[in-house]
Amino acid sequence: MRIFDPHIHMTSRTTDDYVRMAAAGVRAVVEPAFWIGQPRTNPGSFADYFDALVGWEPYRASQFGVRHHATIALNPKEANDPRCTAVLDLVPRYLLKENVVAVGEIGYDAITPAEDAAFTAQLAMAVDAGLPVLVHTPHREKDRGLRRSLDVVAESGIDEGLVVIDHLNEVTVRAVRDTGCWAGFSIYPQTKMSPDRMVALLREYGTERVLVNSAADWGTSDPLLTRRTAEAMLAAGFSAEDVDTVFWRNPVTFYGQSGKLDLTVEPAPAATFAGSSIARGGS
Amino acid sequence: MTPDEWLPAAQAGIRQDPTAAARLLAEAPRRLGRASAAARVTLLTALAELPDGPAHVAGVYWTGDSGERLAVLAALPSVPQAVAVPLLEDALRSNDARLVAAALGPAATALDQGTWRQGVLKCVFLGIPLAGVHDLDRRADPELIAMLGGLAAERDAAGRALPADAAALLTETRQ
Ligand SMILES: [Zn+2]
């Protein structure tokens, strides 16, 4: 089984996770830029974070045979801090980078005017760069945030096929299905979507234009829930072909629209010469 | 534009406006695929020869991803040492074996001996083949050999061996 996790924050995970993910069939990931728990207070903090997403993290992933791509954006939560507004000036140059396959996560957190401004500006950047977009839907007031997101996406003029609306559930999926946008689902250990509920949704809505991710990060989450959901699909009578559509072909199709998806894995020198563990520099 | 046409056009673009280099270098993989690594070095070498070119080369490094930084490190022999040294030192501080190895290529002649020795020792830690270290035989001095000897003793105590190339360097120079 080959798995492409289209939304996972590997920066927050350990090398043990990479080992377990690779053993479970995860061969490719996309890491969206997002909040890191501690609010950042200046653009320099974001530049270093973005540099890690286009530098260190893909290198680290490659040592475990996992292909790593990123999405770059100022996230909605931190868009509310005026000290971080200048991050928007940094985003376009990162969108040119080789492993950046989308703009994201953008969207709403508390649905404020500052979030509106960042969302609209970054949709325009995606159109300019010819990249797909990853839209985060808020945890609170999800329905209102979703409807407003769909309106802003429509106003931006971006091709809906380039947009995934993420963190959907049984209530919010229908509105997205009525558009040309992709539907994203994050499978969590306790709250939100579970593997079995995901399988029920796949039965109802089919496997087209659907992305299923673990959204694993620094909070309670599990990077193997992609695999668990794939197993639940098989147990429920879906074919291996259906599983491959959801967990490989769909993310390849969606992020492939960037023209930058590269799924060949080159072993890093350290992996070749010093075994499979991340080598620690002496200095 | 075909890939064959892209490189000369990018070269002309950079000659006309050196500030266009950052965008063109970032775009190279999308235009050229695997051939982009060599093309980037060609573009950076041409950029280095322009007035203010070396500063632009350094700018590409500081705003670059790993691929762009590797290309800059390969092009560094074309820029003055004062510009090259901070970039080499940054690459040696990283934990990316590709960057560390690239910093010890031909441009490493700009590094002072102390920094260079630490770089070679880091190669041994990271398992980077010493064959790629520029001028190793001439530049290896008693202090480097003493450092390698200390590392060999620590490894020995832990029941581990030095990489074969480092062990060979130690034996050869001790004789
Ligand atoms: Zn996320």
UniProtKB/TrEMBL annotation, chain A:
Entry's family note: Belongs to the metallo-dependent hydrolases superfamily.
UniProt cross-references to InterPro entries, sorted A to Z: Metal_Hydrolase, TatD-like, UCP005295
Organism encoding this protein: Actinoplanes utahensis
Keywords assigned: Hydrolase, Metal-binding
SUPFAM superfamilies recorded: Metallo-dependent hydrolases
Full protein name: Hydrolase TatD
A Pfam family annotated for this UniProt entry: TatD_DNase
Organism lineage: Bacteria, Bacillati, Actinomycetota, Actinomycetes, Micromonosporales
Single annotated GO MF: metal ion binding
Domain of life: Bacteria
UniProtKB/TrEMBL annotation, chain B:
Origin: domain of life: Bacteria
Protein name: Sugar phosphate isomerase
Source organism of this protein record: Actinoplanes utahensis
